[in-house]
Structures are given as structure tokens and as C-alpha cells.
Write a structure and sequence with these properties.
Elements lengths: L1 E6 L1 H5 L3 H16 L3 E6 L2 H13 L4 H22 L12 H8 L5 E3 L8 H12 L3 E6 L4 E2 L11 E2 L1 E3 H8 L15 H9 L4 E5 L6 H5 L6 E4 L2
Parallel strand pairs: 1-2, 1-4, 2-3, 4-8, 7-9
Antiparallel strand pairs: 5-6, 8-9
Helix pairs in contact: 3-4, 5-6, 6-8
Bound molecules: uridine-5'-monophosphate (U5P).
């Protein structure tokens, strides 16, 4: 299989060494089983910190996005160095560079590409370019809920849903300003739909279960494109 793994910036914010060890072991197992893997890292609180300071000082949205992109590349380099025996040692900065590095057969790890989108769009573009079997969004919740689980105790996890349902759920939190994206930005959803990319949302604390979740044997959400 060809897999794209998008690691939420929150993974980096937690600074949990066990999570990093588990990620490294999972990636080694996936590669040893003969699958190909690309990883996209989010910008997390480092991106938000720089964007917040810049915004308060009147920096424009394009420049704020660039700050976010560089923060996501910093996270991408952390993963690159942690996985140096498997990974391509340069973080690609656009889709052409990514495609070129992918030919190396190594795990290619990337952050942001260009302003106006989030790293979820990068993950969707990369998935499209390599015809990935699955795009896996590893975040700090177990999957997609019918309501925001942070504010609704009765929120239910949806094990299967389509992009139409997802768009309705995300409607309340959608924004295109730097640093404000939640899970998937509108452009990422458009790309997922136009190329019918299958998306899995799962908790990064259960990364060792990726293959089980893909096969519907463990907790997570599978999003079918409409
Ligand atoms: N960003 C971009 N383009 C990209 C990736 C990220 O402009 O291709 C910026 C956005 O401002 C985004 C921030 O909110 O970097 C951090 O990425 P993310 O963690 O929100 O995905």
C-alpha cells in the first residue's frame, strides 16, 4: 500500500517522548511490511505562536502563512532526523520537489508548501500525486465526532462517514486565516473529493494500530469521498 500520514501539530506540542518512540516503531513496521509512506507534519503551537505575534504587529496573511509553513518544516525536520535511517534527508518545499524525492523509495517527510492552505491540503496533494491508498490524519482525538467532543459530552464517534457529512460538521469551525484550520481545510476537502482519496482519522496515541484501523478492526473514522 501507499500511505500518507498527516501528523497533527498537537503531537509535537505534547512533547511526549513515548509518542515519538511509538511513531518511529510504527513507521519502521509499516516500511518493513513493504508499504510506502509519506509523512506530513503540522505546525502546532510553534506556528500559532509566531502567527499570533505577527498578527498583533500587523503582518499580512501571506507572511503569517509563511511563518506557519516554516514552523511545520521545523517539525518535519525533527521527524526526518528521528527517522534518519529511513527518511529522505531534505524536507521538500513544494509538490514537484516532493515527487522527485518520492522516487528515492525513502520515507519522504514534508511540512507546508505555500500560503493559503493548511498542511492538510499538503497531505491531500501528496496523496493525489502518489495515488495513495489512504490518507491518515493522526490527531489528538479518536476520529470524527458528530459534534465537537471538547464542548459536547454526548458527542458520538462516527466510524464511517462521507465528505458531505464531514463538511457539515466542520462548517462551524471553518476559516481560511493563518493558523486557524481544524482537521481539514476547504481546499483539502476539494482535493480529496476530486481524486476520491480515502481518509482515515485516528488518534496518534494509537499509531501502532494504523493497519487494524484501515481494516476496520480498531477505533477510528473512515471518510469516503463523495
Ligand atoms: N500553512 C500554509 N501553507 C501550507 C501549510 C501551512 O500557509 O501549505 C500555514 C497556515 O497558516 C497554517 C500554518 O495554519 O501554516 C500551520 O499549519 P497547520 O498546522 O495549520 O496545518
Amino acid at each position: 500500500m501507499k500511505l500518507v500520514l498527516k501528523i497533527s501539530g498537537k503531537f509535537f506540542d505534547e512533547e511526549n517522548i513515548e509518542n515519538f518512540i511509538s511513531l518511529r516503531n510504527t513507521i519502521k513496521n509499516i516500511v518493513n511490511e513493504g508499504h510506502r509512506l509519506a509523512i506530513v507534519s503540522g505546525g502546532g503551537s510553534t506556528a500559532r505562536k509566531y502567527i499570533k505575534i505577527g498578527r498583533e504587529l500587523g503582518v499580512n496573511e501571506a507572511h503569517l502563512d509563511l511563518l506557519g509553513i516554516w514552523a511545520s518544516r521545523l517539525n518535519a525536520y525533527l521527524l526526518t532526523f528521528i527517522l534518519s535511517d529511513l527518511s529522505y534527508m531534505k524536507v521538500p518545499e513544494n509538490l514537484e520537489e516532493f515527487i522527485e524525492k518520492w522516487e528515492s523509495e525513502k520515507v519522504v517527510i514534508t511540512g507546508g508548501f505555500q500560503p493559503g492552505q493548511s498542511t492538510a491540503t499538503v497531505a491531500a496533494l501528496v496523496s493525489e500525486a502518489i495515488a495513495a491508498d489512504y490518507l491518515i490524519l493522526a490527531t489528538n482525538v479518536d476520529g470524527v465526532y458528530d459534534k465537537d467532543p471538547r464542548y459536547n459530552k454526548d458527542a458520538k464517534l462516527l466510524s464511517k462517514l462521507n465528505t458531505e457529512t464531514l463538511k457539515k460538521i466542520l462548517e462551524t469551525s471553518q476559516s481560511v486565516k493563518a493558523g486557524t484550520y481544524e482537521l481539514l481545510d476547504p481546499l483539502a476537502i476539494k482535493i480529496i473529493e476530486r481524486s476520491k482519496i480515502k481518509v482515515i482519522v485516528m488518534n496518534y496515541k494509537r499509531l501502532n494500530k494504523i493497519l487494524d484501523i484501515i481494516h476496520g478492526k480498531d477505533i477510528g473514522s473512515i471518510i469516503e469521498p463523495m
